[in-house]
Amino acid sequence: MDEQRQLTIISKKDYEPKALSLAMRESGIDTVAKSVRSDVVSINRLVRELGYKETAALIVMQLARLEMMLNVSKQMHPEAMAETATMVVDSCINAGVGVNVADIDIIFKRALKGEYGKIYGGVSCADVLRWFNEYYVEKSEACVQYNIEKSSEYHYYSPRSTELAETRERERHRAAADYYRDLMNKKKK
Question: Angle at which helices 43-50 and 52-70 pack, to 10 degrees?
């Protein structure tokens, strides 16, 4: 995406669920690997540019659209939806994998397709946070792969220093992936 398009995505109008989905479909960003390679605006930047409450409100809009599309019988209470959105924004900020607008769209599309499991009755805060945590593991692994590919482009490094840098990068991202995996396992128990 060019810089101008990246900047226009941070307006509230462009982040409405329909506009976001259309922009992401047009951009072709529909996988984790493509998201890692993209320059789509991050959630951290949305918080800085729009504000924390406004960013959480945008997540609420995504949740409401998801419930509408799934035609759930038991909808989330508005306060529960707002709290869930707040927890999602906090989670995105602290994920350490550079969550961006495309990632949010991918996660909600996967939930809509049932890729995170069948939704019985309604969507809960725990469901949504589990989706995000599963996605963070996948994104962390995609970041490792991307960094390995990127580092191989620089041939002027000696093989030993390149191997050391790749090893450190892999270890860092695997530690993040292990953290999220452990977190998921603790929540299942």
Answer: 120
